[in-house]
Amino acid sequence: MALDYIFREASPGNNEDIQAITDIYNAAVIAGGSSADLTARTFDQRREWVESHRFPYGVFIIETPDPSREIIGFAALSVFYDRAGYDGVASLAYYIAPEWQGRSAGTFALERLLDEARTRHMRKVCGVIFADNAGSIALMRRFGFTQFGLMPAAATDSTGTMHDMTYWYLDL
Length: 172
What we know:
Helix content: 25-40%
Radius of gyration: 15 Å
Strand content: 25-35%
Number of helices: 4
Number of strands: 7
CATH architecture: 3-Layer(aba) Sandwich
Keywords: Acyltransferase, Transferase
Low-confidence stretches: none
CATH superfamily: Gcn5-related N-acetyltransferase (GNAT)
Structural class: alpha+beta
Number of domains: 1
CATH topology: Aminopeptidase
Pfam family, one: Acetyltransf_1
Largest sheet: 7 strands, mixed
Protein name: GNAT family acetyltransferase
Mean pLDDT: 95
Shape: globular
CATH class: Alpha Beta
C-alpha cells in the first residue's frame, strides 16, 4: 500500500526546501541514469532554478506524512519552449531521494504534478527521459503518455554513459 505523501509548492526563500532539492538532484546527477548534468549543482544554482519557475509553472516538494515531514522528493512544471505560441505546454520532471525510490513516491509525484498542470490550465505536458530509465518509462505508460520520439545517443550522464532519449507527451 502506498504512503499518502504531502505535495506542496517549494519556496525559494525556504533554505530547507532549496537544500533538499539540491541534495536530491545531486544524488541523481552523481548516480547517473536520470540527468544529463555532468556535475553537481550548487545551492545558489538550485535557488535560481526554483525562482525561475513563475506561475503557471512551479516547483513542488514531496514530504512524508509523519510528524517529521521529511522532504523525500521534488517535482517541476517548467517552460517547454520560450515562445508565446507554446504557452500552456509544460515540461515536467520529478526526482525522488534514493532511499525513497520504490515506495510509490514517484507515482504520487507524477499524479499530483498532473493535477497541478490541469489546475494551472496547461493543455499538454511533455517529458524527456533516458530510454533505459525503466521506472520513469513505466510511469509514462501508466499515466497514458504517448512516446513521440527517440533520439539515439543524445546525452551523456555524469558516469560517462551515453543514453538514448525518449520524448513523451500527454494531452490534458
